[in-house]
Amino acid sequence: MIGTTLKFGWKNIWRNKRRTCLTISAVALTVSSLIFLQSYLKGVINNSNEEMIKTQIGHIKIAHKEFLRLERILPRDYRIGEDELSLIQNYASRSPEIDLLCETVKFHVLISHKDVNEPVMAIGIAPDDADKSMALSQKIVQGEYYNASGNGLSLIIGKGLAQKLKVSVHDEILLLTTDINYSSYALPFKISGIFETGYSSMDKHLLYLPLKKAQEMLDCGQTVHEVLVFLKNPGQAVKIAGKIRETLSSAQKDHPLQAIPWQQDDYIKNFLPALVEIMDAVLVIFFIIVGMVILNTMLMAVMERYQEIGVLKALGFKDGQVRFMVLAEAFLIGTIGSVIGALLGGAISVLTERVGIDLTKTIGAENFAKLDIPVPMFGKVLYPDFTLSILFTSMAFGILLAVMGALYPALKSSRMSPTEAFHSELKV
Amino acid sequence: MRKKIVFFLLVLVLVTVAGTFPQEPALSPADILEKIDSNMVFKTARAEIDMVITLNNRIITKSLDSYSRGNEKSYIEFLDPPRDKGTKLLKIEDIIYIYYPSAERVMRISGHMLRQSMMGSDFSYEDMTVRAKKLKEEYISEIKGEETLEGRPCLLMVLTSKIEKQTYFTRKAWVDKERFIVLREELYARSGKLIKEMAVQAVQTYKDRYYPTRLTMKDKLRQNSSTEMIIKKIEFDIPIPDETFSERQLLKSGRGLSPQTDDTK
């Protein structure tokens, strides 16, 4: 009996091809856009997460607790001392789990060229180590990464900053800072390269200079502000951070340093979840909108057929059979629509995941430049992150809503007498 | 009884005599500003100054020589500590040229940059290079009352700028009633935010003027920070050659201007 009703439902949906195609299209469109939107938002989060780890957090970040607390203003005074740095370096050389140490000195400078002065953040890096962790050399769009044969007085600056200062490769700029003894210190540098991370804020406010020159400018000897530890297996970050803390404590009980695994970093722990919540809220609103579209389409599709249902009841169809037939039709339409939508949404997501979405083209270069967000969130090119779980949940959502949309008219039509059904005209 | 009558007559005579002399009229707020200006404004000045910066319990002393011609031109040369030695500032009108010996280059700053801290102190470039400001010309003042500050009677005055883009739009000043020196001052931005606090610890007499020789500035936008300025020696209205306020003087110990700084001339 079930098989007969299902067969009957299958035949039924193709009796009015135009109506069925329209309903299937609505389901397909909503499912595909749902898949793409979820992939896109997941991509935003993942890109941001990865970029933060590569450039600012590492798998473990070691710094003075006061530096971490006041990081926004980059206090020069709270550094990792030379002895503490040796301990960390020794531990790293003994630990096969540690892939790389990236030591940095971070400070505010005034960059000057001709009459233009810009306050920016300078990061002193060991060029080779920083390239391994951040792949900075791959981000050079003009000139070259550090010139190994140079005297160390070369630096790389962001593309946005270069545009602001109207400078190009080989131009000389002057960097000025206040050192740890509150003396003003300036050094001239040649621009060896211009980088583009794709993150508007980083490209406008950041420059990288050799670690030794940064230490000279700050007059801080061999000390550094941060050590970013990169692991072969990021999952071991908590364990290794604990060991680093033990090593530091064994040398000095009340040392002021903190070793923070990436999972416990403020950005990952607090900011990112807040961002995920906002994105989830966007997703829920979208779910509701697309849900309403499917519900409405299904509702209309069934209600149009009350008279036809009246005929079926007059021919002896029982209430349950009518209900089952209507729901079966909705299930079939939902399934076909969801499969088409999944193929379409999946294809778009996979394609954009490979080639990326260039925001400067979609929202315009000027508007993109205005996205001056202090964390690497909206890169110039965004790569959605498509997964099969997104595909299957979206399909299930499409089918479920199609069936739910047919539930009310199915119940109503099954309870109607044939006479009532004949006389009904799209009345709820 | 006779004694009482004599005493009464004596008092009467004294009161009458005193009344016949004209009383000095009370000074208006504008007059007070003029008197302050007559102490503070100079044609030229040369000073040897120590700046003692206290920041987060650290004390750093910087020594400098300062030459000023009114408000228009100013030249400062740092002598100590060694990292600062040879750093020179030349202010001509609203532009400051700074020579850094470490870079052997000149940087030119203007506009809002003049409000930045000078060499890590609580004084801005503007504070240090515009020291002969005529308050009477730039501010409207009113007397809000009288207070005693460390034993000295003072007038509490509020000065409001006539100029829109004044860094310290409102100044609350405690003015020494006898010497017409601002002994304490609160400096506010146009928004009403307190930016700095100044207090004078020592005043000296120089011929026809009083001048503060030891004062402390606190930048309220910085935490745990204050800078004491000690004027070890100061000479007023002495001849200072034009050469002092030239780029040549700025580059005297340097090797010359870099190509990009040529256009700062």
Short recap of the structure:
The complex is a heterodimer of chains A (428) and B (265). By secondary structure, chain A is an alpha+beta fold.
Helix content estimate of chain B: 10-25%
Alpha plus pi helix count of chain B: 5
What number of domains of chain B? Answer: 1
CATH-defined topology of chain B:
outer membrane lipoprotein receptor (LolB), chain A
Strand order of the largest sheet of chain B: 6-5-4-3-2-1-13-12-11-10-9-8-7
The succession of helices and strands of chain B, N to C, reads HHEEEEEEHHEEEEEEEH
Number of domains of chain A: 2
CATH superfamily of chain B: Lipoprotein localisation LolA/LolB/LppX
Q: What is the arithmetic mean of pLDDT of chain A?
A: 87
Helix/sheet category of chain A: alpha+beta
How would you name the oligomeric state of the polypeptide chains in this document?
Answer: heterodimer
Give the overall shape of chain B. Answer: globular
Mean of residue pLDDT values of chain B? 86
How far from one another are the termini of chain A?
29 Å
Topology:
The complex is a heterodimer of chains A (428) and B (265).
Chain A: H1 2-13, H2 17-57, E1 60-64, H3 65-69, H4 82-94, E2 98-113, E3 116-125, H5 127-134, E4 140-143, E5 154-158, H6 159-165, E6 172-178, E7 184-195, H7 200-205, E8 206-210, H8 211-218, E9 226-231, H9 237-251, E10 257-261, H10 266-303, H11 306-314, H12 319-355, E11 357-358, H13 359-362, H14 365-369, E12 381-382, H15 388-415, H16 418-423
Parallel strand pairs in A: 3-8, 5-7
Antiparallel strand pairs in A: 1-9, 1-10, 2-3, 2-6, 2-9, 4-7, 5-8, 6-7, 11-12
Helix pairs in contact in A: 1-12, 2-10, 2-12, 2-15, 4-9, 10-15, 12-15
Chain B: H1 2-20, H2 29-40, E1 44-55, E2 58-69, E3 73-80, E4 88-92, E5 95-100, E6 105-110, H3 125-129, H4 135-138, E7 139-149, E8 152-161, E9 170-176, E10 182-188, E11 194-206, E12 209-219, E13 225-236, H5 247-250
Antiparallel strand pairs in B: 1-2, 1-13, 2-3, 3-4, 4-5, 5-6, 7-8, 8-9, 9-10, 10-11, 11-12, 12-13
